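3.2 Worked example (two chains)
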Amino acid sequence: MKSISPALIRTLLVLPVVAIAVATGRPASAAEIDAQHTRIGFTLKTRWGQVLRGRFPRYDGRIETLEDGRARVRLRMGTGDIEIVGHPNYTEITRGDGFFEADRFPEIAFVSEPYDRPLLVDGGKLRGELRIRDVSRSETFAIEPAGCVRPGLDCDVVASGSVRRSDYGVDRWMFAVSDIVRFQLRLRVREAAE
């Protein structure tokens, strides 16, 4: 009887894992968001026309390369240290009850639909699921055309999008602060580890 080579045994053991990864869309690799060079912010308007600029000092995420060559973004932003720049009172309101309610809902999360890599170079629409206060909705963000060949590594990936905060139960202070929240992201990543 002919013996089975060790290389064939390894191949037979690895094939089911690869098949599961392809079937489930699990990432082949991921590039982590570079917190030192990434900026995530938002703007709100008051009923008096004042523009409030907010920022997320704490976040993490990655851009995953899927087995089929497409990519997916996963991003989490902490609500407990959201800051409305230059306005400590608005900062407390934004973190508190009826707004992001950071004590109960410590993060906002976004997971994109898989997309083709040229989107980051050419620009276009990126759809995904945004979760705020445990309410998930499909949202679309606009990706600006890149100023380099390797967006995210050699230049920022610039994205923006507007959402209605009331869609997520963030409905306090409607008389004073508009319903529309405009997110702005300037993302950089570290080189993916294979």
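3.2.1 Second chain
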Amino acid sequence: MDSSTRPSTRSAGLVRFLELIRFSHTIFALPFALGALLVATRGRPSARLLLLVLACMVCARTAAMLFNRVVDWSLDQRNPRTGSRHLLIGRPAAILLLVLSAMGFVAAAGAINRTVFWLSPLALAFVFFYSLTKRFTAASHFFLGFALAIAPAGAWLAATERLAFAPILLGAGVVGWVAGFDLIYATQDFEFDRRETLHSLVVRLGIPRALRLAQWLHLAMFAALIAFGFAASLGPLYFCGMPLVAAALYYEHRSAARLDLAGINRAFFQSNAFVSAVFLGSVIAGLA
């Protein structure tokens, strides 16, 4: 092979890997972890702590996504929506990268403080466990929400080594937000989940009722964000961002109501990325 083609081959491999783990979706949970970190440090985290929290977030999410891909390897091959995932990288490579990213998470946690280090295996176990839940419970959407809610709680522990009411409220909001948008996303797999007899809340409730539940969950999430602003003693500018969050959620649900799969995918990414970004911007403004 011409050596001039090697960089492009490596670049293509990196692109396939990032697509496999849906790296662009990191933007969903990361702003909530950073928001909790900023509140816990009153806007002044050290550069070292910030970088370590970022490393924990990236490594934990990468490990969780790789675990999901590995355990669902054959299932994804049968699903028309995910049928090409196994072509992105080989299963042995995915397992190796899973181990490395999990080790990276534990190492970064150990560099933060003792509390975060001792809790890191438990955090990994929980985010891995989510990938198994659809095999025995229809509440998998809520398990995913709890898995992502670990992010703000972990960031708070990284800064203070103890929990408080504010990150618990924020975590509750993340659970409602994630469970709600995952219900919307799961409507795409309604026929497949029913055919495979997987435990699916969308199949159990039907699409219309599942979408109504998602609306209630996002309403609860919005209430939790308001409560978090008070519990964290954030200024008025934080609350000025909340109407933008409500508008993004409304757009997502209006797109979902049309049951247009392309529209759902577009709204899923755009709306949730916008919600995360607005939340983080509102926290920064509220601390000013």
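3.3 Remarks
The CA atoms of residues 50 and 252 lie 31 Å apart.
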